[in-house]
Design brief:
This protein is α/β, with parallel strands linked by helices. It contains eight helices and seven strands, in the order βαβαβαβαβαβαααβ. The chain has two domains: about 200 residues, Rossmann fold (3-Layer(aba) Sandwich); about 40 residues, no CATH class. The chain starts with 8 loop residues before the first strand and ends in a 10-residue tail after the last strand.
């Protein structure tokens, strides 16, 4: 199957590192004009330079700004132009004992992980509907379904994203616009290697270390290794394409079999 996004403009929030960077790269390699987003203009420029050094034909534009702030979100959208593909990837996470999560933290997780996505959907979905084509992807997590005891506030925010996706898919019904969420499983991103080596023998080579980590600390994973960001990006690229025209309102899993259920 050929994924061709030529002529489409994509905005990927939080795309200077990790999963977001992999998604921006995959969409650009499929022909899309991709707005790279991060809070620092210098970091955004540096990432674009690196990605274009790898492949000069990648059409990447800087869209720096804090999308958790209405003014920052407006600046990002102004730099991007009309958005055909919106990928709400930005998110925060952290471990806190359940009874120690303050009101402020509950609000912060909702504001960053949920409301920022809603704000961008609200701004871009009308234009997609008017043009008769569009894709909205919200990057959720296995934690939306398998709520972690050590970060209930994070799980709550990702569960909320599933509801947001389903609800806006209904709003876009029959317009040619699809809205979906992606349930990403345990992923190999920046800082994860250090975290893994805090829990397993540092003398182990990385491939063995991650498998030991998964066996001991994420035993429900059927993949039995961490997911690479590019593997999540591959699913996002497909869902962003015309090939996925019949998939909407869905929570699509790229979780390595971590979620112990048959549906979804």
């Amino acid at each position: 199957m050929l994924i061709d996004l030529t002529g489409k403009t994509a905005l990927v929030t939080g795309s200077t590192q990790g999963i977001g960077r992999a998604i921006a790269t995959a969409l650009a390699d499929a022909g899309a004009r991709v707005a790279v987003n991060g809070r620092s203009a210098d970091t955004v420029a540096s990432v674009i330079s690196e990605l274009q050094a790898e492949r000069s034909e990648r059409d990447l534009v800087p869209a720096p700004g804090d999308v958790t702030d209405p003014t920052g979100a407006d600046a990002v959208l102004a730099a991007t132009g009309d958005v055909d593909i919106l990928v709400n990837n930005l998110g925060i996470f952290g471990a806190t004992p359940a009874l120690d999560i303050t009101d402020e933290e509950w609000r912060r997780y909702f504001d960053v992980n949920v409301l920022a996505a809603v704000r961008l959907i609200r701004a871009t979905l009308p234009g997609m509907k008017e043009r008769g084509w569009g894709r909205v992807l919200n990057i959720a997590s296995d934690s939306a379904v398998v709520i972690p005891a050590e970060m209930i506030h994070y799980g709550m925010s990702k569960t909320a994203l599933l509801a947001v996706s389903r609800g806006f898919a209904k709003d876009a019904a029959g317009t040619g616009v699809t809205v979906n969420s992606v349930l990403a499983g345990p992923t190999h991103t920046g800082g994860v290697e250090d975290f893994v080596y805090e829990l397993v023998d540092r003398a182990l080579p990385w491939d063995e270390a991650q498998r030991e980590f998964m066996k001991l600390h994420r035993p429900q994973s059927l993949l039995q290794r961490l997911i690479e960001p590019e593997e999540i990006a591959n699913m996002v690229a497909y869902l962003s394409s015309p090939l996925a025209s019949a998939t909407t309102g869905a929570a699509v899993r790229v979780d390595g079999g971590y979620i112990d259920s048959i549906v979804p």
